[in-house]
# Entry
Amino acid sequence: MIPICVVDAFTDAAFGGNPAAVCRLDRPADAVLMQHVATEMNLSETAFLVERTDGALDLRWFTPAAEVALCGHATLASAHVLGGDATFHTLSGVLACRKESDGWIEMDFPALPSAPTTYDDALTRALGTAEVYTVGRSRFDLVVELGTAAAVRSLRPDLRSLAAVDARGITVTAPGDREGIDCVSRFFAPAVGVDEDPVTGSAHCVLAPFWAERLGRAELVGEQASARGGIVRMRLDGDRVALGGQAVTVWEGNLLLDAP
# Structure
């Protein structure tokens, strides 16, 4: 049997934030098996942990359709399962997590600045809005700035058309519309099997430098305005960004499979 659990990340209450499965392996597994498990779980991400001889852990992330190189909420979920303090070796380098005095978990992630890019009417048609201010491209995704938080909240995109966009996903963002919230966002990644991600840590690696430049502050708070919703603290420090969040375990069990 293989231990597995589901954790709601970037929330302090069950059934909010973004659910991630966390699977703890006693030795490395074949990527085909991990993909089958992630497809079976049918969550936006399933994390796989394997302990290394130096006490750190290897961490890999799979959507229902593909392995990805960076995932914030499943990293937060993994750190939560381990008590908050952990060091992970990943496709995006070493990621360190620590539990803060207020119970939040802070993750040290790479900052992913975006550069302005051209776009055409196909993108605005796919998003279903003409209120596009700017479009940028980061390492993995597009970031689309709209004029108002209301426009972000009311988006009803054509997901089939978005899946044809040349990017892992599309982050749509605007200034915050309530006290204590600097920016709002939503994230769509139908190309990798995630129509809309409830709360996306890796998107905030882009949003931190994006809004720090516009607002002139390194410490920010983002709200991802999905149906489940979630809050992400951001602190930009050079080419790194500290992402802070909370998490709640909602169930634990075992996969009735032989360990790999």
